[in-house]
Amino acid sequence: MKRARYAAELAQITVGRPAERFVARAKKLQDILGEHQDAVVAEERLRGLVARDAGRPERALAGKLATRQRARRQAAQMDFFDQWPKLKRRGDKAWRSV
């Protein structure tokens, strides 16, 4: 994803507006992927706390926070699958003209 975006940024001078639009979509998709990755890492760490600290009051809070991270991860997945076709269309338009 980032390589395609960086290549498109270089091509903007030649391709023009279609490449600019592709770059904007790619940035949006990269943000979504970053959100997903952050949620995955946070959920894993919180689940690790829950597994280690049995019986401690913090365990319940860590479990609730892990559940929120799972929801955040799932929302990012849904956003990704919503945005991917839009990026593909932008790419088709940008690179068809080259």
The residue ranges in which pLDDT falls below 50 over 5 or more consecutive positions are none
Distance between the termini: 20 Å
Radius of gyration: 19 Å
Helix content: over 70%
Structural class: mainly alpha
User: Treating each run of at least 4 consecutive H or I residues as one helix, how many helices?
Assistant: 3
Strand content: under 5%
Count of individual beta strands: 0
Query: What's the pLDDT, averaged over the residues?
Result: 91
The shape is rod-shaped
Biggest sheet overview = none
Please provide a written account of the structure.
The protein has 98 residues and is mainly alpha-helical. The chain has one domain. It has three helices and no strands. It has helices at residues 2-15, 17-52, 57-96. Helix 1 runs antiparallel to helix 2 and helix 2 runs antiparallel to helix 3 (57-96). It is rod-shaped, with a radius of gyration of 19 Å.
Quickly describe the structure.
With 98 residues, the chain is mainly alpha-helical. The chain is 92% helix and 0% strand.
Secondary structure: elements and pairs:
Layout: H1 2-15, H2 17-52, H3 57-96
Helix pairs in contact: 1-2, 2-3
Question: What features would you highlight for this structure?
Answer:
mainly alpha; 0% strand; 98 residues
